[in-house]
Amino acid sequence: MATASEFAWSKDFTIGLIGMGDMGKMYARRLANAGWRVMACDREEKFEELAKEFADNTNIQILRNGHLVSRASNYIIYSVEAAAIGRVVEQFGPSTRLGAIVGGQTSCKDPEIKAFEAHLPSDVNIVSCHSLHGPNVDPRGQPLVLIKHRASDESFHKVESVLSCLNSTHVHLTAKEHDRITADTQAVTHAAFLSMGKAWHANRQFPWEEGSRYVGGIENVKINLMLRIYAQKWHVYAGLAILNPEAHKQIGQFARSTTELFYLMLEGKEEELRERVCKAKEKVFGAEGSPKWAEKPLLKEELLDRFSLNKPSKGEGAAVKALPNNHLSLLAMVDCWSALGIVPYDHMICSTPLFRLWLGVAEHLFRTPGLLDECLRVGIEDKSFRRDDLQFTIAAAGWAECVSLRQFDTWRERFAVTQKFFEPRFKGAVEVGQAMIKAVLESEKE
Ligand SMILES: NC(=O)C1=CN([C@@H]2O[C@H](COP(=O)(O)OP(=O)(O)OC[C@H]3O[C@@H](n4cnc5c(N)ncnc54)[C@H](OP(=O)(O)O)[C@@H]3O)[C@@H](O)[C@H]2O)C=CC1
Ligand SMILES: O=C(O)C(=O)Cc1ccc(O)cc1
Fold this sequence. Notes:
By secondary structure, this protein is an alpha/beta fold.
């Protein structure tokens, strides 16, 4: 393995970025601001445009391709689509500078590590990373996974010191541990929001625009996070679901939990429904008297109430009363965690803001006196949400099948049509979602 003496561990140390999309640019800017010299590229056809964009940043030099970046850099980060990592590393990996450090930022480490092992010269150190947040979230205090896969201690410490400028919380994992935890947190959480979007699309509704069915803190989270996901690039979500070998089980179980709970509701099997949900509650959140949740709730619902897209019309007043909902998506999430023996609190150290928010909402539902009883009652008696629940169930099964068959093209199509449906409403809505996440992150610090 390379030692310090083989590198110029000084100002001459150059960081290479291959892939200058949202995450690559965020890394480039932050590293450059911290004083590091960055050499970066995207696809060759974007060279001129990127060079212009970064022309006034003297610490960032745009190169034409990954060969040039690889030859010039001491530490190279691949920040490309997860599905492309094999092809891109195959192309540029052999050009890696002698004794350099190489890592990737993809959301799923199995294909990334396989690509590095297959295509990097044996003198190269492999240290991967994963910032567990999107490009527009302040990285300070957010988890940053670091994977010392094949590296000297010195190289690993170098990566830690370079990335310390993000001020994130470093979490040391193996690639396998990373994929298992992110399957439990990200993949299955996204499945819920992707299914909500499909359900509302199928019923051709913008849920915040139709009267008072979707009002209140929990509904705001559903709507804002669903829109946030559909406003992003499809490949981020497809990659971490389809390419993560650990994620298929979770997404499949989420679909089964949804279907089985919905059947119990349709069949009016109140006792069975209550028993199943209460058992899941005990497994996930602990028994009465010995809860797994902290004394202080993860979320303040009043805070979420502020982030509604539904602006009451004149005369309606600010306080439109929320319609009781059976929250099938949340009951199914907890049932899924329970069936797979997942204790979500164990994963907080390696969680995204989105996951923490969703867990916070689930916790709120299960710990607020009377709320769960209301859900179960509505699930059996009330038909107001039946159409949405039916479509949600179909959607969850559809995503699960698509993932299990590794159908990238179908996944993209499914995403794209629903993205198109919501697109006219993204403007403004995305900002509200962003403000909500920011407020929740702020409140986590209190
Ligand atoms: N967005 C997010 O919230 C997060 C994403 N990630 C992960 O980070 C990685 C990057 O994501 P993100 O930045 O959002 O995605 P983007 O699509 O914005 O960026 C990826 C970039 O890599 C480029 N690229 C593809 N092939 C090559 C190549 N041969 N040479 C140079 N550049 C190439 C792409 O070009 P083109 O578009 O033309 O293919 C694109 O510009 C993904 O693996 C994602 O899973 C991790 C954490 C958070
Ligand atoms: O918070 C989430 O789950 C997001 O949607 C943003 C995101 C997407 C991909 C990642 O690898 C990490 C974070």
